[in-house]
Amino acid sequence: MNNDFYYKAIEPDESLLDFVENIGMFHNMSNNDMEVVLMPDGRIDLFFMKTKSEPFQIALIGLENVPEQQIIPANTLAFKISFKPLGAEYLLHTSIADILNSAKVLPKDFWNITNDDLKDFESFHAKIAAKLKEVLPDKIDERKRKLFKLVYESNGEIKIQQLSEEISWSSREINRYFNKQFGLSLNAFCKILRFKASLEHIAQGKLFPELNFTDQNHFIKEIKKFSGVVPSELLKNTNDRFILLSVLKAQ
Fold first, then answer.
1. Are 227 and 39 within 8 A, CB to CB?
2. Which of 31-45, 60-74, 196-210, 227-241 has the lowest mean pLDDT?
3. The model's pTM
4. What are the structural domains of the chain?
5. Is the dihedral of CA 137, 138, 143, 146 positive or negative?
6. 27 near 49, Cβ under 8 Å?
7. What is the spatial distance between Cα 151 and Cα 186, in angstroms, rounded to a whole number?
8. pLDDT single digits (tens) 109-163
9. What is the DSSP letter of 161?
10. Got the DSSP string for 217-249?
11. What is the rounded CA–CA span in Å between residue 83 and residue 92?
């Protein structure tokens, strides 16, 4: 990975696993802007960030279903929480349907995180982990918990009809819930998870489908849909512009 770009992520403890993927940070330490491609990864990111030229701000980034060219300004420092979908619903208490492939700025006093909290990641991590446990719900819809458990365990390769039967929830109601709460269908979300799992294989140099794609052409088409390039170009990762792939390679 680019020596001027630092990334770190810590998995949450067990009580948060249904809601949070990780608590992390990144820092563009150079004096130059970075051109990157953000790819769909099935996460909802809550960013606390600042740059040399821009003041502290808090932003919630919704799910993505298309790749997006972005600029990370010089000297950007960002601490973040990467939520799973249930985290947006039960910890943030918000629908994210209106910010599909988009974002919204939150109040600067959100969760009492301030500019001073960006001075030390370990302190931020301790403070935000305590806050997340504080807002944990007493109970959630067990159908939803089981649904996401099955979807994640299968890397999105479970059939919706099978899901419906296992959790006793009609596929029509499931899709209504997904579209209203997250802005896309369950099938679309599953394809994103399969793409993310395929990235791990591509990071290892595997350019043929390891998961349940119809054939090689289907695999290439899906990878290009979510990354903008074919698998071989993605593997090259010129200038580390595909940050998610760079992180996977570094692990």
1. yes
2. 196-210
3. 0.95
4. 5-134 (2.60.40), 142-250 (1.10.10.60)
5. positive
6. no
7. 9
8. 999 999 999 999 999 999 999 999 999 999 999 999 999 999 999 999 999 999 9
9. H
10. HHHHHHHHHHHSS-HHHHHH-GGG--HHHHHHH
11. 9
